[in-house]
Amino acid sequence: MKILVVEDELKTGDYLRKGLVEAGFVVDLARDGRDGLHEALSADYDLVLLDVMLPGLDGWGVLRALRAVGKKTPVLFLTARDEIDDRVRGLELGADDYLVKPFAFAELLARVRSLLRRGGQRAEGEFSDFLRVADLELDLRKHRAVRAGKRIDLTAKEFALLELLMRRRGEVLPRSLIAAQVWDMNFDSDTNVVEVAVRRLRAKIDDGFDRRLIRTRRGMGYVLDEADDE
Ligand code: CA
């Protein structure tokens, strides 16, 4: 899951990026409104965290420009001002939620997850905090993986990788796509970071079970599904 943070205050921006990365998200940071708008238009983000008071182009301007070209990326406004006018204005312009500074990071994370779930619902018709494939279950709220009732400990990256594979179950995902989505890097044919991570994830998810869920499609990538072939 990829998030764009548009925030001119250095400390706040760095704090948000660090926290979100630790929570398993891929995060880009823009320091002003024009950069933020450019980024939001040029890449596919799952969510934009948008500060209101920004140099150059303010948050309202960024949101208006995004919606004007039909970009529907969910937007969570961050602002120091808590006047009701601002709130109404943001929602009228098509913001999806609103958070007043200062806020607790846990609160931000809860809002972010809730917006991402809503986005997922629109895309997939899922109305749950859980992803399930066969006896494997991912609790997106608690960041927990369970297979056949057994809790599986995953790192943040492993969780993000598994979430991606489960959301796109049955689809063969090329390594380059996984690298871009989970590590935010362009895949370099010399690096085997994806391969190593998948191997580690597979050991945690599939070892000790009759049915393997994660499979390699040689020369193509990886797929997670419950088909019982091979
Ligand atoms: Ca600001």
Write a concise keyword list for the protein shown above.
Rossmann fold, 42% helix, 2 domains, binds calcium ion, alpha/beta, 230 residues, four-stranded antiparallel beta sheet, five-stranded parallel beta sheet, Arc Repressor Mutant, subunit A
Task: Summarize this structure briefly.
The protein has eight helices and eleven strands.
Low-confidence stretches: 123-127
Cα distance spanning the termini: 30 Å
Strand residue percentage: 15-25%
Question: Architecture of the largest domain, according to CATH?
Answer: 3-Layer(aba) Sandwich
Helicity, in percent?
40-55%
Summarize the structure in words.
It is a single chain. This protein has 2 domains: 2-118, Rossmann fold (3-Layer(aba) Sandwich); 130-224, Arc Repressor Mutant, subunit A, CATH 1.10.10. The chain contains 8 helices and 11 strands. The chain has helices spanning 10-22, 33-42, 59-68, 84-92, 105-124, 156-167, 175-183, 193-206; strands at residues 2-6, 26-30, 47-51, 75-79, 97-100, 130-133, 136-139, 144-147, 150-152, 214-217, 221-224. Helix 6 crosses helix 8. The chain is elongated, with a radius of gyration of 19 Å. The model is unreliable at 123-127 (pLDDT under 50). Calcium ion is lined by residues 8-9, 51, 53-54.
